[in-house]
């Protein structure tokens, strides 16, 4: 037994903790065994072939039995002055070493030569360590201790992992906790970077609030270069996004960054007229449809044969003056009642623009239809009747639609308007009458927010073709030297088109074809672009469809961009999944859907104040829903926008306020700061528009 051999040679062994049995080791002749890794080396080698431990620094027991007990102390079978042990201990000082399970003290007899050699070797290693630490390596700070994939031989000897399972488990837990803390740090860095810490100093921003660890320090302490760490973080971010999906189900938003493709941006050299969406609005019987029909006929959009048919049908019903209006009012009900009920869409080309004409109804019963059509407008033509009494009726605050249409057009973001003073032949082309209309209506338009430089005044007569596409005769030209209506249209400026954002197209109307198995949607592209074969997401049904074909002015086209008014033919979707008031959008960037909104509103001339609990009708793009005012948050100063009163009991006429409304059904909506077209609303009650507003916050659906 090994204990008997130690006693025979003069050694005294003291067991500190508990007695264990040691395995008997057989050493081959002509070889020496390394006490570190227990490898049998050739006798001619001065260091271990496996771990590199020096042979001379190990204790040799004198055959005579003389050694000094104070020279060397072995702990767990390892020599304290071993070169490998000193190096490991210096490099991995952050490891918390536990006391070995056993501590055996060896007392050897005197051996002067061995004592001298041992002190020399120890002094050499101490000088080496002092030289190593005095250089640039003295500032090394190891925050996360280095660990082998498997325990090193030195760890096996010092902590006796080969004989203590409890120690092995504790060590494994300690290393696992270190690894977990490292992963937590990387996760915190990733979260901070995703939350928008941008700029040149973002890489050195503090990201671990508990421990005060910085990203740059963390990278250097772990031995990773900052640029490598950033690239790894980006790859982890992309992989996590691909696993969790692109769409946030809670808010309907996407975490991806949208990048438009090359074909979405129009080519400056492309020989194509820019599209201008022009809404025609005004009081009922002011001559809007007649003006539109006459203009289309003069520009060749209505053939002489068609015009002759309209004249014949109008005379048969005793309405000969409606012949040009019937070119757009095609339904039997519209012709019988003599009014426009829906928005009629027509196209013509001027010298500068491809114009989409949106003839809106003027009767107060069909203002919701007017809102649906006018939301697509880039500019507007406001038609007023110059005849005595008719102009005053249209401008009446109670029943006049001239006032309401002007307010609605301005609330839709239209800031350019052409005022056509129609039926000038009835007043014998009186300049005084024209100036009076201009003075009264101009004052009201300025109160709506229109600038004088953005308002063009054109006296005209649709029935007598005066000042529409050419210079008028002497009756009008004698005192008016401004542009004709067609030249005034060419003088309008196109609003900025946003091609860099994802696709958004509110659906104005749908056409269902049972025979072909497809659905056609009509509307104006607010942002982005589409082309044949593209995938689109229909909201709020969240169904994906394929674009089969595109049509512009009844002509097939391959690409449609922001600002274009097109018909989109879809396939691969059921008819009941597409409704007017929905939105076509990019599959990865869906529009938000909610029924709980915070609005900033401007109240118009109302007699009944708005209270908490008031029932209203909310219009947003082509959708309308019943709404309830659930909370009045504050009143605002109309000039500064600052809060003047919190939680008022009611809102009176001409006041600005912030309110919360809950809708009966959910609508596709965006905050005004994100999308102006999908962030403007109008509130109506009892057939009248009572307030205009903007969506300031989309709240959780109720």
From TrEMBL:
One of its GO terms (molecular function) is zinc ion binding. This is HBS1 isoform X1. PANTHER family: TRANSLATION FACTOR (PTHR23115). The lineage of its organism: Eukaryota, Viridiplantae, Streptophyta, Embryophyta, Tracheophyta. This protein promotes the GTP-dependent binding of aminoacyl-tRNA to the A-site of ribosomes during protein biosynthesis. GO terms for cellular component: cytoplasm. Its main location: cytoplasm. Keywords: Cytoplasm, GTP-binding, Metal-binding, Methylation, Nucleotide-binding, Zinc, Zinc-finger. It is found in: Cytoplasm. InterPro entries: EFTu-like_2 (IPR004161), GTP-eEF1A_C (IPR054696), P-loop_NTPase (IPR027417), T_Tr_GTP-bd_dom (IPR000795), TRAFAC_GTPase_members (IPR050100), Transl_B-barrel_sf (IPR009000), Transl_elong_EF1A/Init_IF2_C (IPR009001), Znf_RanBP2 (IPR001876). Residues 28-57 form the RanBP2-type domain. Belongs to the TRAFAC class translation factor GTPase superfamily. Classic translation factor GTPase family. EF-Tu/EF-1A subfamily. It holds the Pfam family Zn_ribbon_RanBP. Residues 273-497 form the Tr-type G domain. It comes from Olea europaea subsp. europaea. It comes from the Eukaryota. Residues 191-212 are annotated as: Disordered.
């Amino acid at each position: 037994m090994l204990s008997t051999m130690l006693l025979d040679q003069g050694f005294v062994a003291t067991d500190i903790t508990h007695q264990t049995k040691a395995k008997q080791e057989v050493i081959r002749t002509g070889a020496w065994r390394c006490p570190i890794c227990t490898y049998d080396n050739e006798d001619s080698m001065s260091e271990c072939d496996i771990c590199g431990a020096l042979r001379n620094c190990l204790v040799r027991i004198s055959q005579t039995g003389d050694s000094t007990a104070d020279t060397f102390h072995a702990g767990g079978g390892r020599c304290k002055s071993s070169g490998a042990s000193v190096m490991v201990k210096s490099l991995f000082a952050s490891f918390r070493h536990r006391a070995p399970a056993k501590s055996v003290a060896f007392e050897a007899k005197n051996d002067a030569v061995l004592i001298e050699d041992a002190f020399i070797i120890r002094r050499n290693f101490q000088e080496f360590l002092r030289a190593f630490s005095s250089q640039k390596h003295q500032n090394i700070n190891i925050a996360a201790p280095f660990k082998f994939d498997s325990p090193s031989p030195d760890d096996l000897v010092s902590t006796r992992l080969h004989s203590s399972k409890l120690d092995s488990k504790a060590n494994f837990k300690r290393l696992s906790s270190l690894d977990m803390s490292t992963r937590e740090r990387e996760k915190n860095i990733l979260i901070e970077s995703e939350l928008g810490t941008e700029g040149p100093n973002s890489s050195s921003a503090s990201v671990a609030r508990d421990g005060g660890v910085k990203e740059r320090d963390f990278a250097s302490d772990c031995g990773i270069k900052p640029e490598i760490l950033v690239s790894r973080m980006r790859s982890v971010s992309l992989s996590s996004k691909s696993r969790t999906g692109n769409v946030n189900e809670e808010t309907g938003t996407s975490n991806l960054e949208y990048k438009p493709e090359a074909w979405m941006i129009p080519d400056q050299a492309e020989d194509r007229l820019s599209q201008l969406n022009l809404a025609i609005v005004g009081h009922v019987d002011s001559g809007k449809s007649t003006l539109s029909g006459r203009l289309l006929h003069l520009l060749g959009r209505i053939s002489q044969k068609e015009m002759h048919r309209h004249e014949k049908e109008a005379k048969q019903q005793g309405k000969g003056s409606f012949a040009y209006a019937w070119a757009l009012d095609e339904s039997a009900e519209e012709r019988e009642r003599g009014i426009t009920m829906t928005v009629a869409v027509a196209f013509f080309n001027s010298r500068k623009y491809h114009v989409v004409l949106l003839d809106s109804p003027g009767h107060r019963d069909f203002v919701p239809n007017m809102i649906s059509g006018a939301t697509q407008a880039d500019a507007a033509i406001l038609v007023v009747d110059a005849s005595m009494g008719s102009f005053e009726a249209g401008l009446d605050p109670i029943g006049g639609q001239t006032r309401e249409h002007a307010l609605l057009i301005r609330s839709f973001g239209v800031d350019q308007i052409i005022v056509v003073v129609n039926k000038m032949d009835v007043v014998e082309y009186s300049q005084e009458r024209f100036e009076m209309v201009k003075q009264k209506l101009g004052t009201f338009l300025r109160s709506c927010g229109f600038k004088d430089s953005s308002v063009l005044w054109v006296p005209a007569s649709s029935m007598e073709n005066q000042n529409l596409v050419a210079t008028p005769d002497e009756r009008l030209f004698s005192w008016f030297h401004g542009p004709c209506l067609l030249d005034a249209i060419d003088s309008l400026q196109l609003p900025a088109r946003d091609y860099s954002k994802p696709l958004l197209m509110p659906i104005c109307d749908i056409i269902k074809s049972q025979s072909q198995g497809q659905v056609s949607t009509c509307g104006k592209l607010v942002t982005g672009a589409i082309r044949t074969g593209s995938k689109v997401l229909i909201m709020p049904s969240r169904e994906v469809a394929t674009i089969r074909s595109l049509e512009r002015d009844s002509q097939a086209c391959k690409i449609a961009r922001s600002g274009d008014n097109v018909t989109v033919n879809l396939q691969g979707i059921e008819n009941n999944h597409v409704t007017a008031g929905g939105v076509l959008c990019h599959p990865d960037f869906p529009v938000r859907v909610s029924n709980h909104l915070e609005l900033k509103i401007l109240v118009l001339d109302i007699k009944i104040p708005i209270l908490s609990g008031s029932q209203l009708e909310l219009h947003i793009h082509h959708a309308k829903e019943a709404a309830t005012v659930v909370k009045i948050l504050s009143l605002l100063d109309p000039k500064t926008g600052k809060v003047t009163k919190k939680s008022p009991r009611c809102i009176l006429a001409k006041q600005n306020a912030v309110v919360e409304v809950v809708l009966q059904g959910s609508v596709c909506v965006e905050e005004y700061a994100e999308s102006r077209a999908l962030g403007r609303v109008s509130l109506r009650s009892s057939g009248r528009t009572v307030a205009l507003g903007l969506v300031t916050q989309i709240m959780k659906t109720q």
